[in-house]
Each structure stands twice: as C-alpha cells, then as structure tokens.
Amino acid sequence: MVARTGEPSNSLLRIPDMKETLLKVYLQPKSSKNEMVGPYRDGIKVKVTAPPIEGKANESLIRFLAKEIGIPPSSIEIIKGHHAREKTLRILGTVVNGQFDFKKKIC
After folding, report:
1. By residue range, what is the domain housing residue 86?
2. Residue 32 and residue 54: Cα distance in Å, rounded?
3. Is 8 inside any structural domain?
4. Which of 87, 82, 106 is nearest to 26 (CA)?
5. Would 59 be classed as within a structural domain?
6. Phi and psi dihedrals of 76, rounded to 5?
7. Does residue 36 form part of some domain?
8. How many other C-beta atoms lie within 10 A of the C-beta of residue 47?
C-alpha cells in the first residue's frame, strides 16, 4: 500500500498502541549455564550456554529472555550487534520496566 505522497504506508507494518522496548544486552556465549548476571554498563549482562557459531548464541539469547519475560520469542528482535557481544534488542508487546530477577538462574 502506498500513500499519496509516494511514501509507503506503515499501517500494515505497525500496530497502533503496541508497546516497544529497546534493551541493551552484553552477551557472554559458551557459559556453563543460562543466566541474567545483572546490570552491565548501560544495559544488562546475559550468559548463555550456546557457542557463538551460526547464530546459535543469538537464538539462545532470544529464547532465554522470552522465557524470563514471559513473551513469545517472536516478540524479540536483535536490531544491532548480530555479530558482536554488545546487542540492542527490540521487545514488542510489553514494557520492560527494568525489574529483572538477577538471582533467578535458569539452566
């Protein structure tokens, strides 16, 4: 669908009033367990057991955070840092208010 100004219409791509949160994550792959370590720099540090090969650590990060937050993995997208340890994630459909349980560890 194209608007009269020649620009594409975003009405099909964005749902009005959908909440969106950007979260900065420092990822440590090949850890002994999956866990949220705690605040780190201007985001959080997360450890995952998956190796940083062929996107396995990224997939593991998304699945782990989705389980922690209680949302489907499809609601989390890596928007920056696909091949780096420092990543920026977009989380749709929920507002992450910074209250993560850093003592809870999920294996």
Report:
1. 20-92
2. 19
3. no
4. 87
5. yes
6. -115, 130
7. yes
8. 20
Question: Is 65 strand, coil or helix?
Answer: helix
* Per-residue confidence (pLDDT) for residue 50, from 0 to 100: 97
- Give the count of domains, the chain: 1
| Six-digit token string for 30 | 């090949």
Tokens 């959080």 found at: 44
Q: 53-58, long-range: CB within 8 Å, 24+ apart, which pairs?
A: 55/82, 57/27, 57/29, 57/30, 58/27, 58/82, 58/87
Tokens of 102: 């850093």
Whether pTM > 0.85 for this model: the answer is no
68: amino acid identity, one letter: E
Nearest alpha carbon to residue 40 among 21, 27, 55, 49: 27
Which pLDDT band, with edges at 50, 70 and 90, does 21 fall under?
confident
Domain with residue 34: its CATH number is: 3.30.1200.10
